[in-house]
HTH cro/C1-type domain-containing protein (Rhizobium leucaenae), 470 residues
Amino acid sequence: MAERKIFAGPRMRRIRNGLGLTQTAMAQALEISPSYLNLIERNQRPLTVQLLLKLSSVYRVDLDELQGEAGGSAGQLREVFADPLLSGEIPGEQELIEVAEAAPNAANGMIKLYRAYREQAARLSDLAELLAREGRIPALASPRLPLDEVHDRLEHRSNFFAGIEDAAEAFHARLMQGDDLAASLKAWLRSEHGIAVRTLPVHAMPNLRRRYDRHSMRLFLSERLSPFDQLQEIATEVSLLALRQEIRAELEPLSLSTPEASRIARFELGRYAAHALMMPYGAFHNAAQRLHYDIDGLRARFGASYEQVASRLTTLQRPSAAGIPFFLMEIDGAGHRLRKVGAQGFPQARFGGGCPKLNVHAAFGQPGQILVEAVEMPDGTGFLTVSRTIEGPQANFGERVRRTALLLGCDLGFREEIVYGKALSAAPIAIGAACRLCERQGCLARAEPPVTRPLGLDEMAAGLSVFDFQ
């Protein structure tokens, strides 16, 4: 095996400067010419084994210091430049390594500055939530990414769009011919727009769940999708065609800042309309009341998935026939919040949704099981929470399934009207909006200290929490 050449010019220069030597003085001690040392420091010559041994014996240099690849700094710089603000600024991995090796102090300074920026951004977000809880909404700039802007608009408003609901209910009444909604929607697409629906195997569409081919006028669906998800995709396509005027009318009040955000919101409203077609408001509201909001019972009644029914429950806010004001949150296994909606806007100020003690996190340990719990906020407000995992498209052998968890919640005062209220026997679990905003003492689940209190630094005593505070 060929010996790996070691080019360590910047590190060699740092050692020489640290010793306060000129190139001539170091070259004389190492028994090489100053010009050769100059070439080494410019990475135009590698370090030989003899020279490495000489450096070790003359200057007591740690050979690992010269043979290292500055991997730690380069890896941290990679994280810095992966930020959306900086992505694309560095052309390749080699330049990051060169920066880490040639200017390690500057690289460490960039890393510290980036960490400080992230910390300040997190603190500003936490403080904004704290102000929102007190009823003072700060005038902040628009979110950086179009998807964030759309989510922000939808989270802070009621998840009810009257124009879409009325149009979807009327369309469903005209459409239904028997009990097979999927067949009726396919027939409408073919007769009204000449669009055929076809399911394709995984190898033909490995990375897509759906694709509309304008040339052949065919809507392709992946066979990975469950029958419920296939029906939702068909209903979405129908909604974007049959209810486009109503969707456009509901889109305008959102006042989105970019065409990209408007495009994302249009598809979000299309999915909303698909649920309205699959589960028409009047029939769904009546069934939900009769079944006391039993999600599994509603699934069987309307031929829908758990996720579709849970999402639909958050939309029951028609003034003449309102249901219980549910809110919903979806997270993944890493704790990322993927979606937040509410019948009256997600209760960010009162509920938060960032507490690690919520049963939505425990749901991953019991896949497919419904977990019901009562929780209590520091101000005494109580909520009923229903959590369960859901799985994404069918995974092939060797692939890891996409599993997320849904939390469906409402005010605890509605417990007698909901089938899940019967499962509540223990005292409510004490939670907070989020660790950074929660001042509960002795919380075993605390992940971060509160921004509202100074840390407790008593060397003689330590509390139960990882982060003690005064």
In short: Residues 104-133 form the longest helix (30 residues).
